[in-house]
Structure formats: structure tokens, C-alpha cells
């Protein structure tokens, strides 16, 4: 795991103040589905759109190995836990 990349995610998580950390892209149906899932469960999230933050995608992929969007972390209980994408999160929150 790339330490510098991991630090970017930990910094975002520390400043988020939300239940989840969500990395997204433009025109991403699964990203929109993840946002609806969180809304339906009254869970909060902080979103970072890769298309608005050059270089961020490379850092998140280096840290997680997850190459598609969304990339989702659970920030509850003071942990930063990588879940995966929408499908994994949908199962995780059942």
C-alpha cells in the first residue's frame, strides 16, 4: 500500500465529520445509487469527485487497489474502513 496515498485518504476521513467517505466520478450511475442508498438509510457522507481533483484517483487506487468508482469508506466508530464500491456497500449495509 502506498503510504502517501493512504495519508490522503486518512486526511479526508479526519476532516469529513460524516458516516462515510465517498470517492466518485462524473456520469457514474453507481455513484448516484450509493448516494441514494445513504440517503435512504439516513447516513451522511463526504464526497470527493475524481473529475474535480486531478491526481486524486491515482492516490486512491494506489491505496486501495480499487480501480472503479465509487470508492467507499466507513468512518463510523472512529475507524477508516475500506468497503469497496456500490455492490459491496449495498451488501455491507443490509
Low-pLDDT stretches: none
The CATH topology comes to: Glutaredoxin
Strand portion, in percent? 15-25%
Helix content: 40-55%
Sheet bearing the most strands, described?
4 strands, mixed
Number of strands: 4
Would you identify the CATH architecture? 3-Layer(aba) Sandwich
Overall structural class, as computed from helix and strand content, comes to alpha+beta
Q: What is the CATH homology-level superfamily?
A: Glutaredoxin
What is the mean predicted local confidence, pLDDT?
Answer: 94
Q: What's the total helix number? A: 4
> Numbering strands along the chain, what is their spatial order in the largest sheet?
2-1-3-4
Main traits of this protein?
about 90 residues, alpha+beta, Glutaredoxin, 4 helices, 4 strands, about 20% strand
Task: Please summarize what this structure is.
By secondary structure, the chain is α+β, with helices and mostly antiparallel strands. It is built from four helices and four strands, in the order αβαβαββα.
Overall description:
The structure is a single chain. By secondary structure, this protein is α+β, with helices and mostly antiparallel strands. The protein has one domain: Glutaredoxin (3-Layer(aba) Sandwich), CATH 3.40.30.10. 45% of the residues lie in helices and 19% in strands. The chain has 4 helices and 4 strands. A 4-stranded mixed beta sheet has the order 2-1-3-4, sandwiched between helices. A hairpin with a 6-residue loop joins β3 and β4. α1 (3-16) crosses α3 (56-64) and α2 (29-40) packs parallel to α4. The longest helix is centred in the first third of the chain and has 14 residues, at 3-16. The radius of gyration is 12 Å and the shape is globular. The mean pLDDT is 94.
Amino acid at each position: 500500500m502506498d503510504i502517501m496515498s493512504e495519508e490522503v485518504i486518512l486526511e479526508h476521513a479526519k476532516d469529513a465529520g460524516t458516516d462515510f467517505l465517498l470517492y466518485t466520478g462524473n456520469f457514474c450511475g453507481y455513484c448516484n445509487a450509493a448516494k441514494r442508498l445513504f440517503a435512504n438509510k439516513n447516513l451522511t457522507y463526504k464526497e470527493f469527485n475524481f473529475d474535480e481533483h486531478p491526481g486524486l484517483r491515482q492516490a486512491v487506487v494506489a491505496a486501495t487497489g480499487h480501480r472503479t468508482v465509487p470508492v467507499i469508506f466507513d468512518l463510523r466508530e472512529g475507524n477508516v474502513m475500506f468497503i469497496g464500491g456500490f455492490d459491496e456497500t449495498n451488501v455491507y449495509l443490509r
